[in-house]
């Protein structure tokens, strides 16, 4: 019997951005619907942004940062910090989830664990 091969974890960059914005929103007690309304999106479309299933446009990220009373550069600084933490665990950051869906799931689980340990 062979041991099952675990996929190489990876994290899509869009998931990093989404999780940083989500973390700031949750810390401030904000709701997804408020963010969605600001961007002219449905709550489900906004949820896909936070999960990294779709990518924030630069404009959307700017508007979310403003609502969260953050500079867009602060959002990106937090993303870079997470990226550094994940790279220390040999988790590559990729453009999109399509590269390795199973690896993306493993990587996102690591990202969520990292975020929860930072609270």
Question: What can you tell me about this protein's structure?
Answer:
By secondary structure, the chain is mostly helical. The chain is built from six helices and two strands. The chain starts with 10 loop residues before the first strand and ends with a helix. The chain has a two-stranded parallel sheet. It has one domain (11-118): lambda repressor-like DNA-binding domains (434 Repressor (Amino-terminal Domain)), CATH 1.10.260. The longest helix has 18 residues, at 101-118. It has helices at 13-27, 32-39, 43-51, 58-67, 72-88, 101-118; strands at 11-12, 93-94.
CATH class descriptor name: Mainly Alpha
Radius of gyration: 15 Å
- The H-level CATH homologous superfamily, spelled out, is lambda repressor-like DNA-binding domains
What percent strand? under 5%
The CATH architecture name reads: Orthogonal Bundle
Percent in helix:
55-70%
Q: Separation of termini?
A: 41 Å
**Structural class from helices and strands?**
mainly alpha
Largest sheet: 2 strands, parallel
Shape: globular
Count of discrete structural domains: 1
Low-confidence stretches: none
Spatially, the strands of the biggest sheet line up as: 1-2
Question: Can you give the mean pLDDT?
Answer: 86
What is the number of strand segments?
2
Number of helical elements: 6
Q: What fold name stands as the CATH topology?
A: 434 Repressor (Amino-terminal Domain)
Write the H/E string, N to C: EHHHHHEH
